């Protein structure tokens, strides 16, 4: 009988989930509205002291009757002191983390700026994607005008991006996703194709006008369709094949009269198209479960190691003999190094932002966005560099871009119909 009347004090380690547990006990739904409930039952025999020491809660009290001494003599005083306790404060902090504010005994859901204005945020993403892409292409071409070494420049692009990723991982933005041997084996072919396509694009940029390279790269949907049909065995509708005819015709017209045409630039751009096509194929097989930011970071690291050997063997002797010296003599050491750094940053940021942007939109918007991006780049490159193009080249470029737009819209509609059909079957 003595033990029943004498309070027993227990000291326990405060678990991390206690705040969430208490919060969930405090919240319930009543006719669609969230209201606060008491943290303890009407006749609870447990109460929590607001005092703590070294992470341990003191004063978990058990007695044979409801407590009245420790928290006061009435329910209001107990509730007031509970609200002031570290446990409830932690509950409120956890609520803030998940977008819930507790005030005056009520619970109100809060939305972030992106949730309240999704169209505005997506539009900003598109703008930054285009802006960074245009700046990259312009600055990249200017570097080639005094430093025509595309293999080395490709290494710089990836190196700056990899350093950026490592710094972000170090500060936990984003948190690095672990990778195992199986995932590495899946990502390596993707990274190899990414490296090849990237290097060949830069070889083309260094050899011909930026607008011409992007016109040739407008053929990428044709290579994608061909690979899907003959490599993956997917049946491509006739409407898609017909929509590709203007692309082929337009690129052919632009190539025949392009004033900056040379075979190095043309063939390199075509190889880039093929490499990026196979990158898409291998990407579908490399579903690692990671988020896109971590996947792109790992691909960049692997691609960097792929690009270093060709740069050393193909351009290394020329760079050591006169390449670096000539570039520094033309623009100075500071501008040379800053140009290399910024083209690497813009390259990584526009690719990362493109990935994040395309994750936010539907396939149809994705298709339109890709086409408009190419139009922006071609238009700005012509204005900035003053490239002279013939009338036939201009008409051919317009026809090619229009064909890409038609193809993209048809393909997006087909994908949307497949998605809706799958959703209907699953439901």
TrEMBL record:
<feature type="transmembrane region" description="Helical">
    <location>
        <begin position="151"/>
        <end position="173"/>
    </location>
</feature>
<feature type="transmembrane region" description="Helical">
    <location>
        <begin position="238"/>
        <end position="257"/>
    </location>
</feature>
<feature type="transmembrane region" description="Helical">
    <location>
        <begin position="117"/>
        <end position="139"/>
    </location>
</feature>
<keyword id="KW-0812">Transmembrane</keyword>
<feature type="domain" description="Sugar phosphate transporter">
    <location>
        <begin position="121"/>
        <end position="408"/>
    </location>
</feature>
<keyword id="KW-0809">Transit peptide</keyword>
<dbReference type="Pfam" id="PF03151">
    <property type="entry name" value="TPT"/>
</dbReference>
<dbReference type="InterPro" id="IPR004853">
    <property type="entry name" value="Sugar_P_trans_dom"/>
</dbReference>
<dbReference type="GO" id="GO:0015120">
    <property type="term" value="F:phosphoglycerate transmembrane transporter activity"/>
</dbReference>
<keyword id="KW-0813">Transport</keyword>
<feature type="transmembrane region" description="Helical">
    <location>
        <begin position="294"/>
        <end position="313"/>
    </location>
</feature>
<dbReference type="InterPro" id="IPR037185">
    <property type="entry name" value="EmrE-like"/>
</dbReference>
<protein>
    <recommendedName>
        <fullName>Sugar phosphate transporter domain-containing protein</fullName>
    </recommendedName>
</protein>
<keyword id="KW-1133">Transmembrane helix</keyword>
<feature type="transmembrane region" description="Helical">
    <location>
        <begin position="263"/>
        <end position="282"/>
    </location>
</feature>
<dbReference type="GO" id="GO:0031969">
    <property type="term" value="C:chloroplast membrane"/>
</dbReference>
<feature type="transmembrane region" description="Helical">
    <location>
        <begin position="393"/>
        <end position="410"/>
    </location>
</feature>
<feature type="transmembrane region" description="Helical">
    <location>
        <begin position="371"/>
        <end position="387"/>
    </location>
</feature>
<feature type="transmembrane region" description="Helical">
    <location>
        <begin position="333"/>
        <end position="350"/>
    </location>
</feature>
<dbReference type="InterPro" id="IPR050186">
    <property type="entry name" value="TPT_transporter"/>
</dbReference>
<dbReference type="InterPro" id="IPR004696">
    <property type="entry name" value="Tpt_PEP_transl"/>
</dbReference>
<keyword id="KW-0472">Membrane</keyword>
<keyword id="KW-0150">Chloroplast</keyword>
<dbReference type="GO" id="GO:0015605">
    <property type="term" value="F:organophosphate ester transmembrane transporter activity"/>
</dbReference>
<keyword id="KW-0934">Plastid</keyword>
């Amino acid at each position: 009988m003595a033990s029943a009347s004498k309070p027993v004090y227990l000291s326990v380690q405060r678990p991390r989930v206690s705040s969430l547990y208490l919060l969930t006990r405090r919240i319930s739904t009543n006719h669609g509205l969230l209201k606060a409930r008491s943290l303890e039952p009407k006749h609870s025999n447990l109460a929590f002291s607001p005092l703590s020491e070294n992470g341990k809660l003191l004063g978990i009290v058990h007695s044979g009757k409801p407590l009245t001494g420790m928290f006061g003599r009435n329910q209001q005083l107990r509730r007031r002191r509970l609200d002031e306790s570290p446990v409830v404060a932690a509950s409120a902090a956890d609520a803030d983390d998940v977008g819930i504010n507790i005030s005056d005994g009520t619970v109100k859901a809060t939305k972030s700026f992106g949730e309240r204005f999704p169209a505005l945020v997506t539009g900003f993403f598109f703008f930054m994607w285009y802006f960074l892409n245009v700046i990259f292409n312009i600055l990249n071409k200017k570097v080639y005008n005094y430093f025509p070494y595309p293999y080395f420049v490709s290494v710089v692009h990836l190196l700056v991006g990899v350093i950026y990723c490592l710094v972000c991982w170090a500060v936990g933005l984003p948190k690095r996703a672990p990778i195992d041997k199986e995932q590495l084996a899946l990502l390596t072919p993707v990274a190899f194709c990414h490296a090849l396509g990237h290097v060949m694009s830069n070889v083309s940029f260094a050899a011909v006008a930026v607008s011409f390279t992007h016109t040739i790269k407008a053929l990428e949907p044709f290579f994608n369709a061909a690979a899907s049909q003959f490599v993956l065995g997917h049946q491509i509708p006739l409407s898609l094949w017909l929509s590709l005819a203007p692309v082929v015709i337009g690129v052919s017209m632009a190539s025949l009269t392009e004033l900056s045409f040379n075979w190095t630039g043309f063939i390199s751009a075509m190889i880039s198209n093929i490499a990026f096509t196979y990158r898409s194929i291998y990407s579908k097989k490399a579903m690692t479960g990671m988020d896109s930011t971590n996947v792109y970071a790992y691909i960049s690291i692997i691609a960097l190691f792929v690009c270093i050997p060709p740069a050393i063997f193909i351009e290394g002797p020329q760079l050591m003999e006169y390449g670096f010296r000539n570039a520094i003599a033309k623009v100075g050491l500071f501008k040379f190094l800053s140009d290399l750094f910024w083209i690497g940053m813009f390259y990584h940021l526009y690719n990362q932002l493109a990935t994040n942007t395309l994750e936010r939109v539907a396939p149809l918007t994705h298709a339109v966005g890709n086409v408009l991006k190419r139009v922006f780049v071609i238009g700005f490159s012509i204005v900035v560099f003053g490239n002279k193009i013939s009338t036939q080249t201009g008409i051919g470029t317009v026809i090619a871009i229009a064909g890409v737009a038609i193809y993209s819209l048809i393909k997006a509609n087909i994908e949307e119909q497949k998605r809706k059909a799958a959703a209907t079957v699953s439901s």
